[in-house]
Amino acid sequence: MIKTNGIIRKLAGCKKPLETTFFKAGFCTGTTPTSSTSLNEAPVSKFRPKKALVVSKLTKYEFEQMRHPIMNEEELEKFLRNRGTDYEAMLYYHNLHKNIEFEVAKEFKDQGVDVKVVNRLNICPDNHLKWADIIVPVGGDGTFLLAAGRASPFFTERKHTPVMGFNSDPKRSEGRLMLPKQYSTNIPDAVKRILTGDFKWMHRSRIRITLLGNNANIPYPIDMHEYNVGPVDHKDVFIDSPPVLHKMNEAHHKETKRMLPYLALNEVFIGETVSARVSHLHLRIDNAENVTKTKSSGLCVSTGTGSTSWHTSINRLSTKNVQELLDILKKQASILNGVDPSKIADEFNNNLVFPPDDPRLCYSIREQICVGVWPNPKGLESRGFAKTFFVKSRCIDASLVIDGSIAYPFNDGTRALLEIHPGDALLTVNLNE
């Protein structure tokens, strides 16, 4: 039992937290089991899973039940209605999700596949992740990211555990990472295609994070989805400090290096926990000699998969922005009359997206402060590509957040190396015609 921020988390079937399992699994040498694995070595033919792990979305209704465990259904309904919550809508979408989840599990069972259903509160390596041949999230992109994060070789002890998901609310959710929306209403066809090999494999690059710190002062992570009932207070949620992964030297101040078991499929964000506070970060790309000192609203380092998400939201241009620029330019060049600002905005925004298997990192420095040197700040551009990215914190109360879910404290003196290794890629399926 782990008590955090007034919440008791029970790791069903797990005697140890996820990261403790990671260390006991024998992956403490500083390399992952897939560090030398080529993407082409992933299973491509004769894939017939015998065990499917369905990862269920934690619905808002289930979340409220978790927040108020002493209330029965009638008491919870009364409480939520008095609070002003749309109880009927909450229950409707809860049931909608559960119906699709039931159909997915039933279809795999009907095809002779063993099925276990878990959610973010009880998923565990020993009983679930190591057991599964395929991981099937049911929900939206957030649930897919949860499943992908747990599909790391650190937890599964496999080179590749495929992940494929069903969108449980295709009318409201885009679900870009899930199977095409038509399969939410045609689940048998999707399962049949998977079990008969009628699909193409798809690889999505993921970011490997290595934390550096003094005297092994690198704590366990916080599940932000689980602990968002109140302000995050790091000192209240840590278990014992994890063991040292690798001693870099034997000096008086012992410096440690620790690779995190979670791989980022979308992005890694680093910044102050309080968004109004300036984030002070030292940055270096591709082993460059010079370090750039920045003040900003935080740093977002994205993969190709994440380039359609937060990366685009940070950097996109609106039609109004383009129109204002054209109005200024038209004063200088009449040839620009008649140019469509919406087309320019669309082309710019489309160019922000890059392939999910791209081996590069794309970084964005949010709202970089450039007082006195704008528009030409020294050092890094506010957006660009890199093969490796080094970050050192000068923050007061910051976090390094993986896929908007797993958060590690990232305060003054803490350093991180971000990189992409081909063997860390997520294996998923493509059912597009």
Task: Write up this protein.
The protein has helices at 18-24, 60-67, 73-83, 87-110, 125-129, 141-150, 153-156, 187-196, 234-237, 310-315, 319-330, 341-350, and strands spanning 2-4, 7-9, 51-56, 114-118, 134-139, 166-167, 200-204, 207-214, 222-223, 246-247, 255-259, 267-272, 279-285, 292-296, 299-302, 361-365, 383-386, 388-393, 398-402, 406-409, 415-420, 426-430. By secondary structure, it is α+β, with helices and mostly antiparallel strands. Strands 10-11-8-21-18-13-14 form a 7-stranded antiparallel beta sheet, with no helix packed on it. Strands 9-20-19-12-15-16-17 form a 7-stranded antiparallel beta sheet. Strands 4-3-5-6 form a 4-stranded parallel beta sheet, with helices on both faces. The longest helix is centred in the first third of the chain and has 24 residues, at 87-110. It starts with a strand and ends with a strand. It is 26% helix and 24% strand.
Give the structure's gist in a few sentences:
This protein is an alpha+beta fold and about 425 residues long.
Rg from Cα: 23 Å
What is the overall number of helices?
12
Average predicted local confidence, pLDDT: 81
Largest sheet: 7 strands, antiparallel
As a percent range, the share of helical residues equals 25-40%
Report the portion of residues in β strands: 15-25%
> Which stretches are poorly predicted, pLDDT < 50 over at least 5 residues?
1-13, 15-45, 228-253
State the distance separating the first and last CA atoms.
47 Å
Shape: globular
Give me the secondary-structure category: alpha+beta
**Number of distinct beta strands:** 22
Oligomer: single chain
Side by side, the strands of the main sheet go 10-11-8-21-18-13-14
